[in-house]
Amino acid sequence: MDANYRRVSNVVILWEIELAMATMLALRGTANPPTPTPQIGRYLLQLRRVLPADGELLVQPGDKVEPGTVVGTCTLSPQRTAVDVASMLGIAPGRVEESLVVAPGERCAEGALIATHRRLLGLRTRTVLAPFTGHIGGFSSRSGLAWFEGDSQEIALPAGLYGSVIDVVPPREAVIEAEAVVVRGIYGVGGEASGNLTTVLSQTPETEERLILVSREPATVDVMRRATQLQAAGVVAPSAARKDMAALGMDPLARPSMHTWKGPPLFLTEGFGEQTMTDTLWELLTAQPVAWATVVARPDLHVFLLVLPIRSLAPKDAWTRFGPGSRLKSAGMSMEPGEARLDAFLPFPLAVPSGLRLPAAETIDAEERRASVPISELEWLM
Question: Does the domain formed by 80-151 have CATH 2.40.50?
Fold first, then answer.
């Protein structure tokens, strides 16, 4: 393996936890706090693709994969729950059958009416709604319960990036090795999404390709709602005001389990408030078409990544600009611009005086002196 690379797997996750802790510490007590700049690096990643249930893996070690390559399939068992119809309607258990408005076995959507009862001469009506998409599997006239069953779900797990399969662990897991530029963001909500990067969303798209919107301006309520309306796969933006995020159901101070946002994932590169995207990152994302980037916005895991496949980027953008050998304008040291260069990204976080541990790189100056510097203190010479 090239000495300029650092193999990264769980290390990336550990770094993200440290960054998330630093961000949340800064966030508490202020509406739109200052946050670190985005951190960009080129890595040889080992990514685990895991099925949600036991299934069949369709790849073998050595296989080349693309974003749409299906690495495995499985079937999720139907969700089942008991609904206390009698108690919810205020009726005797023996009257449950006559209250049903859908027959057992008849499919209905989430939130659809499944039972109703009028009281006080019809002046008051109580209802029971379907907890999820499925059907009534049966009911009991003795207990007043109805059993609601969801649909079985077929899952096809895509590779999500260009790379090679280096290991498979039946019946759920495949490990893919990929060379990529990784942008570690400040915050994100909505899960994982993949697609082609674009700066414009069309109201009548000519193709069915999945698109991730890249905005140089902050993500507002209107931007996110429009992205949802136009079925964007995700949104990459520099920042967002906390009040807007709260209005959308993604308050960064709330527990991830309390988030109600159902739209495309949002990935923030700069911080909170009204910051714009840095010129360096904007050029990287928009100077040329980027095929099939992946956004990972998992606040529950404190992981906020934008993965850009190397084959989608020109060498000057992916390697010379940010990789080992690139010249630095500033590296936390007193020297003239261009005197220092990036030698390697360190595979472990660096402790700083504040007590935090941050992702770091090793730099080297004109006199071959080396120093370990937090990536947030690096500034590339353009």
Answer: yes
